[in-house]
Design the sequence.
């Protein structure tokens, strides 16, 4: 019966999907348990009938603007007894309002309108849904333009190329291309990678969870309060996991640190790590001089808050930016949309308010003539307690509470890396938080969100 439709299409030059392409699409629907589909361009109902036949609980809405084809499609769908599961609409897809939400949006209509279809219907996509588009090759003409014979074909090829460029530069979606049939593209909403700053105590447990990577500091070169290791220990960690490993050398570098820094950078270059986090811009030149090929990520807690600074560093060879904690969501997304930098942002953890090279705790205890018994103390101010941490590298004062953006995470999908820091958090509490980020389960408490919704405005009082 389906062959009749295929033969009809052949006889009347109706561009239904090619066998390989439709087979791939149907398998994809089956494997990904897709239940609701919106199709743009039904023609005579062939692909809709094939997709509906994958499983009895699939429902399809399909739109066709050509009335003759629409009528034939309705007949065909009736013949397959699928009128109750395939809703076909006779209208121009760009004009018809669509309110449902779908697991799959299949675009297979006028090639010149692909970008418009994509931008209109992405709003009808379920959070984990995909947009699949047919005919990215246009019978090979896109790859080999010498095959183009008519002006009409040239126009279509140009539109398809524009669409491919649109997909490749899309900040919201990530697209893969399947060279089957007439080549189809699969676009999924981007999602952040989750990386954790572990401690020595929770490292093993953290590596067992479904996160994407960890941040590890190098001893005497990192001011991350969490895990700090030497190169040997780093090698052991790399061996023990296939997760992404980001290494931090983010302290203020002084001349006397340079030989050690160079030695470490040369070692890191040979290891299976992905990125190097740094604070001091001197690292850019040192890395260049040493021929370091790992991605550099700049991390200057409070600086780097504009499109200009990020693009300046990007043009200097820096691939990523760990953003200031003190910018709002609007500022964050605005920069993300205007830079090619990979962006990292703190999703959970205590934020450093202040960093000094001085040994503030030691000095304080000397001053009051008492013994310092720990490297972590709390400073009380207006009923809030602020952690103060001293290490070889100096002292850091943190926010009184950890920031927690779990309830905002949907708004941050375009941010490449969300960082979850376990410093100073009780382990079972931390594992709960981590799981909420992994499973995207919202918190029912009101969480501290730092400056996410609030602009930092400095006001000088009249008498100052
Ligand atoms: N998906 C079908 C083939 C579709 S062919 C299959 O594989 O079986 C493309 C169809 O899109 C044509 O029938 C054309 O009339 C329709 N079309 C083009 N632009 C459209 C638009 N803006 N709205 C609705 N249908 C459109
Ligand atoms: Mg097609």
Sequence:
């Amino acid at each position: 019966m389906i062959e009749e439709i295929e033969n009809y299409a052949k006889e009347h030059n109706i561009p239904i999907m090619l066998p390989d392409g439709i087979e791939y699409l149907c398998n994809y629907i089956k494997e990904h348990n897709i239940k609701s589909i919106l199709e743009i361009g039904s023609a005579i109902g062939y692909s809709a009938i094939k997709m509906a036949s994958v499983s009895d609980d699939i429902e399809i809405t399909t739109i066709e603007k050509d009335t003759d084809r629409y009528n034939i499609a309705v007949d065909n769908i009736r013949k397959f007894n699928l009128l109750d599961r395939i809703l076909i609409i006779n209208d121009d897809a760009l004009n018809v309002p669509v309110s449902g939400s779908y697991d799959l949006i299949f675009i297979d209509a006028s090639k010149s309108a692909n970008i418009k279809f994509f931008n209109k219907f992405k709003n009808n996509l379920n959070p984990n849904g995909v947009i699949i588009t047919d005919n990215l090759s246009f019978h090979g003409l896109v790859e080999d333009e010498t095959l183009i014979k008519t002006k009409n074909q040239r126009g279509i090829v140009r539109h398809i190329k524009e669409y491919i460029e649109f997909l490749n530069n899309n900040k919201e979606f990530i697209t893969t291309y399947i060279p089957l049939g007439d080549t189809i593209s699969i676009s999924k909403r981007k999602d952040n990678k989750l990386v954790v700053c572990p401690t020595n105590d929770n490292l093993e447990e953290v590596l067992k969870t479904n996160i994407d990577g960890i941040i590890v500091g190098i001893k005497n070169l990192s001011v991350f309060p969490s895990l700090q290791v030497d190169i040997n220990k780093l090698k052991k960690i790399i061996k023990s996991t296939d997760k992404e490993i980001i290494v931090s050398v983010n302290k203020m570098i002084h001349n006397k640190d340079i030989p050690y820094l160079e030695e470490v950078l040369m070692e890191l270059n040979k290891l299976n790590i992905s990125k190097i986090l740094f604070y001091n811009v001197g690292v850019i030149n040192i890395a260049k001089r040493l021929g370091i090929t790992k991605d550099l990520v700049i991390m200057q807690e409070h600086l780097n808050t504009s499109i200009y600074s990020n693009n300046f560093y990007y043009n200097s060879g820096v691939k990523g930016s760990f953003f200031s904690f003190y910018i709002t969501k609007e500022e964050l997304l605005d920069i993300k949309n205007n830079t090619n930098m990979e962006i990292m942002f703190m999703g959970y953890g205590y934020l450093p308010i202040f960093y000094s090279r001085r040994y503030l705790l030691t000095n304080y205890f000397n001053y009051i003539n008492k013994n310092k018994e720990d490297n972590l103390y709390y400073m009380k101010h207006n009923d809030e307690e602020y952690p103060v941490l001293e290490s070889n590298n100096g002292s850091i004062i943190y926010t009184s509470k950890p920031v927690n953006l779990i309830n905002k995470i949907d708004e941050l999908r375009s941010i490449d890396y969300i960082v979850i820091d376990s410093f100073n958090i009780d382990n079972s509490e931390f594992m709960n938080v981590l799981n909420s980020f992994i499973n995207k389960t919202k918190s029912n408490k009101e969480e501290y969100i730092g400056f996410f919704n609030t602009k930092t405005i400095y006001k000088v009082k009249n008498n100052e």
